[in-house]
DNA sequence: CATGTGACGCCTG
DNA sequence: CCAGGCGCCACAT
């Protein structure tokens, strides 16, 4: 049983709030938990002990890149993550990244 | 207590 | 437009 800190729980709590068919970026998630560092968020998800209860695969980079999954960045693992998102209804681009419109962020009606 | 690493993000060249 | 570097927070050693 891995000891999780309060910060980790916050990250998991926010991650669990992500609706199916959408993803959240590390940066946005970081801001939501009142943390200005996306790295700290990644660290939490990396050791996600509540998986798959915590949909860490619904968290991607600001560019829409899957970045990593299950603590790995192997194309095989990322491909699995992509498949999971696809099953949720998330759309992808030829770049192998999540479409911006599927990413929950403060972008909204801006632009 | 200090140093290094890590699933990122943004700025500069 | 692409590549590289620095900054950030938390955690492990």
Portion in beta strands: 5-15%
Largest sheet: 3 strands, parallel
**Measured on Cα atoms, how large is the radius of gyration?**
13 Å
Shape: globular
Could you list the spans in which at least 5 consecutive residues all have pLDDT below 50? Answer: none
Total DSSP helices: 4
Number of strand segments: 3
- SSE string, helices as H and strands as E: HEHHEHE
Quick check: average pLDDT? 91
User: Which class do the helix and strand fractions yield?
Assistant: mainly alpha
Amino- and carboxy-terminal Cα gap: 46 Å
Order of adjacent strands in the largest pleated sheet: 2-1-3
Overview of the structural elements:
This protein has 111 residues and is mostly helical. It is built from four helices and three strands. The protein has helices at residues 6-16, 26-32, 38-46, 75-88; strands spanning 23-25, 59-60, 103-104. It has a three-stranded parallel beta sheet. Helix 1 crosses helix 3 (38-46). The longest helix is centred in the last third of the chain and has 14 residues, at 75-88. The mean pLDDT is 91. The chain binds a DNA duplex (13 and 13 nucleotides) through helix 2, helix 3 and strand 2.
What is the topology?
Layout: H1 6-16, E1 23-25, H2 26-32, H3 38-46, E2 59-60, H4 75-88, E3 103-104
Parallel strand pairs: 1-2, 1-3
Helix pairs in contact: 1-3, 2-3
The chain binds a DNA duplex (13 and 13 nucleotides) through helix 2, helix 3 and strand 2.
Keywords for this entry:
3-stranded parallel β-sheet; mainly alpha; single chain; DNA-binding
């Amino acid at each position: 049983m891995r000891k999780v800190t309060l910060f980790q729980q916050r990250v998991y709590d926010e991650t669990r709030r992500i609706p199916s068919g959408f993803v959240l970026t590390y940066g946005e998630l970081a801001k939501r938990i009142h943390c200005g560092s996306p790295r700290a968020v990644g660290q939490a998800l990396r050791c996600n002990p509540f998986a798959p209860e915590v949909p860490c695969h619904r968290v991607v980079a600001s560019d829409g890149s899957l970045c990593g999954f299950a603590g790995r960045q192997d194309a095989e693992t990322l491909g699995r993550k992509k498949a999971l998102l696809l099953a949720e209804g998330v759309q992808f681009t030829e770049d192998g990244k999540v479409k911006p419109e599927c990413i929950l962020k403060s972008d909204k009606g801006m632009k």
